[in-house]
Amino acid sequence: MHPPPVPHAVAHALPARRQFIRRHALTVRITHWLNVLCLSFLLMSGLQIFNAHPRLYWGKYGADADRSWIAIGATQQGDAAQGFFEIGPLRIETTGVLGVSDKNGTATARAFPAWLTVPSYHDLGAGRRWHFFFAWLLVFNGLVYLVHGFWRRHFRRDLLPSRDQMAPRHLWQEIRDHARLRFAQGNAARRYNALQKLSYLAVVFGLLPMVVLTGLTMSPGLDAAFPFLADLFGGRASARSLHFISAFLLLLFVAVHVAMVIASGFWNNLRSMLSGRYAITHDGGKT
Predict the structure, then answer these.
(1) Which of 146-150, 157-161, 186-190 has the lowest mean pLDDT?
(2) How far apart are the C-alpha atoms of 155 and 147, rounded to whole Å?
(3) For residue 104, is it left (φ>0), alpha (ψ between -120 and 50) or beta?
(4) How far is CA 241 from CA 214, 236, 237, in A?
(5) Is 20 helix (H, G, I), strand (E, B) or coil?
(6) Which residue, among 238, 190, 172, 188, has the nearest Cα to 210 in the 3D structure?
(7) Using 50, 70 and 90 to split pLDDT, how confident is the model at 287?
(8) Which residues of 128-163 are buried (b: 16+ CB within 10 A; e: fewer)?
(9) What φ, ψ does residue 19 adopt, rounded to 5°?
(10) What is the DSSP code string of 179-228?
(11) pLDDT tens for residues 175-232?
(12) Are 80 and 40 contacting, i.e. CB atoms less than 8 angstroms apart?
């Protein structure tokens, strides 16, 4: 007996083809991982510094007697301490996480818990030393990245959105695709999509410069040498608030970035940032 005939489309389907492309230059990869290191220690040492005065203000002045727009602290409720988080008129009980956390089995009044800060014990001076070291490392690393980006035309070639990518209909479609976890395949995966490009440009030329400039504004020595910085941000208290807002937005960007890396292919994305090789798959055609 002869086997039944196979449909033409099925019989001539071609297997998917995998191709490796060069995705990230060596300088981009090195500066990326240095940024990961710097931002991790900056966050944890920054929380240590914040713990010394866990309140944020607007304007030129900020002290206990002034009205804050964000505060983390603790109040005594009988024999127990109760942690709280305040933002404007809203007050939320946060015992066990913010305001009051466990330390060696004892509830301790502390804005951020010890496991989130560097050093883990309360030491403002040590926290500042950690923070300043990694802040300057971040600045120098960023300058290397900027010089490379302009010199090798990385920003213009890879991060500047094209006119068709900025069309409202195209942007809306990308938002819908991301919400449904649908990612580009084949040749479309060779370039960043518009949402990636816009978010990377916002971080490189917006959030990171804001973090650096507001951080410089809070330095008494630099503030005295360049008094226009405080005026630029409406006062040192406002600069401190903007510093923490920018840091929070950076943290939010990193969280979304990591989620998208995992959802779109963790090992492929990780390999591209380690070796520069990124795999794209071309769907099998029909003959």
Answers:
(1) 186-190
(2) 10
(3) left
(4) 9, 9, 6
(5) strand
(6) 238
(7) very low
(8) bebbeebbebbeebbeebbebbeeeebbeebbebee
(9) -135, 140
(10) HTT----GGGGGS--HHHHHHHHHIIIIIHHHHHHHHHHT-HHHHHH-TH
(11) 999 999 999 888 888 889 999 999 999 999 999 999 999 999 988 888 788 888 889 9
(12) no
Residues 6+ apart with CB under 8 A from 84: 71, 72, 73, 74, 75, 91, 92, 93, 94, 98, 99
Closest CA to 66 of 232, 273, 276, 236: 236
Ramachandran angles phi, psi of 235, nearest 5°: 115, 160
Please tell me the total number of residues recorded for the chain in this structure.
287
- Tokens standing for residue 286: 């029909």
- The amino acid sitting at 187 is N
Residue with tokens 């779109």: 264
pTM of the model: 0.87
Strand ranges (E), the chain: 17-22, 55-56, 70-77, 80-87, 90-93, 99-103, 106-110, 277-282
